[in-house]
Write a structure and sequence with these properties.
Elements: H1 6-10, E1 24-30, H2 34-44, E2 50-53, E3 69-70, H3 78-85, H4 87-110, E4 122-125, H5 129-146, E5 151-153, E6 170-173, E7 177-178, H6 181-194, E8 198-200, E9 205-211, E10 214-219, E11 222-231, H7 242-245, E12 249-258, H8 263-269, E13 275-278, E14 284-288, E15 294-298, H9 307-321, E16 330-340, E17 347-351, E18 354-358, H10 364-379, H11 407-420
Parallel strand pairs: 1-2, 1-11, 2-8, 4-13, 11-18
Antiparallel strand pairs: 3-7, 4-6, 5-6, 9-10, 10-11, 12-15, 12-16, 13-14, 14-15, 17-18
Length: about 425
């Protein structure tokens, strides 16, 4: 079993990087994932000189470790959005999530980014019978409040969607899509390079502080002076950026991928080829890959765990859903950090002069690219009042400064909820 991302191994790519750190630039971007690459691309095409600093490799973090699910919506449910922000603001936030998906699709088509994008829809499946009643209420709420139309699937109809009988119905959102995240990262990096962006790998930022007319960044390759700095590190935010690090909570999500199943077995498991996730807090999510494997993921623990140990747990979970895979081998196992915030909302803005975008809470495949675009507009001085997320302040908590010590407690709480509710 390979302990690395299937996406990266399936599509190994090299990007045009530079080894020489320039002395200065208009915009320095810390992090070369989807957020950083999107910000760099859109800023450079408007004439800014942009340098991207990546401590590992291009796309090393969550951008090539996710499941490739391009979903509608946010971490908070539509009902939670309205309760917290009121109807009008909630509609703007939800509309932005739909706009993000359309934006990414348009970008993929316009730039010819061959990343296996397909509008297959997602399927949220009810872990308990009571959860299906919640899906019924959610469908009604989204239709009446947001004019967003979804499709209910009863327990009796689930056979047309899944080759399992463990779920009690589901809700289809036809707008969601699937894609190959490593191909998307590679395509954005290519476009950024062609736009004049300088990208440096293996270049961690050790210090970042204000200087005359901008910022000084101390890196492993020397000093860089930048007029503006963007932090695009999400669940991998380093200690050198402590003001932002204490506002982002990294939670590990673990994934396994089988050997190729063949078309017949893959279609038996997922006949409609949707992106699937369930209603638990320690949720399962799964999909077919472009070469007809099963990708199966979950939040096995709120504390760090070895990939091989997590793979054993996930394999048992997978067999609880699809027992027909008992004799199928697991070829890949890996994990990545999902960036959460204390208000469970994604954020972009400015903190101590540093611009940032992060905290997508599992919806980063499309929101990261879209937030990168809007962050670039902000840096270029464009009018950004139409984008509602600039209004939000990213909260901190007094008890969290270095290590998220509270995650085991949160994990125990959510396990109780999953067991009894």
């Amino acid at each position: 079993m390979k302990e690395l991302s299937f996406w990266r191994d399936h599509f190994p790519f090299e990007t045009q990087t530079t080894s020489a750190l320039p002395p200065r630039c208009d915009i320095a971007i810390i992090g070369a994932g989807l957020t950083g690459l999107s910000t760099a691309l859109h800023a450079a095409r408007s004439g800014a000189s942009v340098v991207v600093l990546e401590q590992e490799r291009i796309g090393w973090g969550a951008s090539t470790r996710n499941a490739g699910m391009a979903l509608t919506g946010l971490k908070l449910s539509p009902e939670q959005l309205v309760k917290r922000y009121g109807r009008e603001r909630a509609r703007k936030f939800y509309r932005a999530s739909l706009d993000a998906l359309a934006f990414v699709q348009n970008l993929i088509e316009h730039e010819n980014l061959a990343c296996d994008f397909h509008r297959c829809g997602d399927l949220c499946v009810a872990y308990r019978r009571s959860h299906y009643q919640g899906l019924i209420a959610s469908q009604k709420f989204m239709r009446e409040e947001f004019e967003h139309h979804t499709e209910l699937v009863s327990a009796a109809e689930m056979a047309r969607e899944l080759g399992t009988k463990v779920y009690h119905g589901g809700l289809i959102d036809p707008l969601s899509a699937g894609l190959h995240p490593a191909k998307l990262v590679a395509g954005l990096a290519r476009c950024a390079h062609e736009a004049g962006v300088q990208m440096l790998e293996a270049t961690p930022v050790e210090e970042c502080h204000r200087a005359q007319k901008g910022f000084e960044l101390k890196t492993s390759h020397g000093m860089l002076h930048a007029k503006e700095v963007v932090v695009a590190t999400n669940g991998y935010t380093p200690a050198a950026l402590r003001h932002l690090r204490r506002r982002i909570i990294p939670v590990g999500s673990y994934i396994i991928v089988t050997v190729p199943l063949g078309r017949a077995l893959a279609e038996e498991l997922l006949p409609t080829n949707r992106m699937v996730y369930d209603t638990k807090n320690f949720l399962f999510y799964f999909r077919r890959t472009p070469d007809e494997r099963l990708l199966f993921g979950g939040r096995t623990s709120f504390t760090p765990m070895r990939d091989r140990e997590a793979a054993n747990i996930l394999r048992a979970d997978m067999l609880s859903v699809f027992p027909q895979l008992h004799d199928i081998e697991i070829e890949y196992a890996w994990h990545g950090n999902v960036g959460f915030t204390f208000d469970q909302m994604p954020h972009l803005g400015e903190q101590n002069g540093l611009h940032y975008a992060m905290g997508y809470g599992g919806h980063g495949v499309v929101m990261s690219v879209y937030f990168g675009y809007w962050l670039a507009q902000k840096l270029l001085g464009a009018d950004t009042h139409a984008f509602p997320f600039f209004e939000l302040q990213m909260p901190a908590r007094f008890f969290y400064r270095k290590r998220p010590w509270f995650l085991p407690l949160a994990g125990a709480y959510y396990r109780v909820l999953d067991r009894w509710f």
